[in-house]
Amino acid sequence: MVMDIVAYEASDDATKPWAREVAAWLAKGQEAGGNQPVEVVKTEIGEAYRLARQTNPEFTMQNAGENAIRDWLVDTLPEIGGPALVVYEDKKMPRLIARENLAEVVVVATTRAVLAFAEERGLIESAEEIWNDIIRRAESANPRLDIQVIRPTLAP
Fold it and tell me: In this structure, are residues 65 and 5 in contact, taking their beta carbons and an 8 Å threshold?
């Protein structure tokens, strides 16, 4: 599941690094009968962002993705059960998960950790090459972000 605001931020501006690839992945994942389904979850924050961007294409919203993820986790995860994986860049995300008492059912992993996992499984050739491309092309990427996975504190 991908929050709509995260999908918008990652794919709406085709000049952003990887935007076209993300948009293609999202589209393919939403095709009926696919073996790698992706659900783009509609959120209030995402809808507000979408409407604001229609009026002002330069509009940005501070911490929108993190807040949408938190809201979904708090409101929906208890109903459907865990665990859940949250891929993050903002170092606030692990603290946010802990503050909301979700650390028992949510795994948080940096993008670098997901890339390393994909390389270990043979899904990509070089995690480091992709990571270096991301930090070279994306102003917001943190080149010092560690490869980190924080697992639930208790077994389900």
Answer: yes
- 116-129 confidence digits (pLDDT tens): 999 999 999 999 99
pLDDT tens digits along 20-41: 888 998 999 888 887 778 889 9
Tell me the pairing of strands 106-110 and 149-150.
antiparallel
Q: Do strands 40-41 and 2-3 pair parallel, antiparallel, or not at all (unpaired)?
A: parallel
Separation of alpha carbons 156 and 104, rounded Å: 8
Residue with tokens 């589209």: 27
Beta strand 106-110 pairing with 84-88:
parallel
pTM, entire model? 0.77
Residue with tokens 């509009």: 59
Closest CA to 98 of 60, 154, 37, 55: 154
